Model the fold of this input.
Amino acid sequence: MNEVMLKKRIPKAWSEAYITLIPKEDTDSHQVNNYRPISLLNADYKFFASILAGRLKRYLNNFIHVDQNGFLLKRQIKHNIRIILDTLEYYEAHPEKQTALMFLDAQKAFDNVSWHFMLLQLAQMGFGKNFTRAIETIYCEQTARVLINGELTESIDIRKGTRQGCPLSPLWFVLTLEVLNRCIREDKRNENEKEEYKLQAFADDLVFILEDPLESSCKLIERIEEYGKVAGLKLIKIKQRY
Done:
C-alpha cells in the first residue's frame, strides 16, 4: 500500500484485467452489444481497491444529493419510487399543469467515462495526497485481455472507463454523474413548482420531472449533451411519459 500511495507504483498484475463477456437476458446473442464485459481482476488489487472504496463511500453521502440512491450507504431505490409516485399524485391533482417524466440511461456508462474528468472530481473533493496518489496510479495505465471460448486475446491498452468488477467503479460513476445532476438542479431554465423533486437517480438510471415539457425537454437535452462531451458519456434511451 505504501508503494502505491507514496511512490505511485503498482504491481504489473494490478493493471491487467481479463474480460469475460456475460450475455444480457432476453437479447440476441449474435450481437456484441448484448454482452456485458466483466473484468476479472487480481485478488490483491481488489482487496486494496475495497479499502479505498470503503474510505470513499463514507464521504460520498455528504457530497452526493439525496436524490441519487445508487451504490450509496443507507440509500435505497424505494425512496426514488416513493417520490416519483408522490409527484405524479401532485400533478394529477393539478391537471392544468403540463408535465412530463423523462427517463434516461447511459450508453455503456462504466466503459466510457473519462479518466481526466473523474480525477478532476476527486481533486475538487479535497481528499488527502496519499489517497489521491493511489487513485491516480490506478487510473494512469491499464490493460485488458478478452477471454473468448477459453482463449485470451492480445493485450489491449485501456484509456477510459471504470472496470466492471472493481469495488471502486460504481462509486466513481455516481460521483461523475453528480456533476450533471447538480447542473440540472441549479439550472433555472428547468424550474418547476416541485423544485426539490426535479430529478431522481439510481446509478445511471435517471428520471427528470419537467413542467412545460415541450420547451424544458429541449433545454434539458442540450445540457445533457454538453455534459456528455466533457465526461465522455453518451446518454441514450430517452423516453417521455406525459
Notes: The chain is about 45% helix and 20% strand. Residues 43-63 form the longest helix (21 residues).
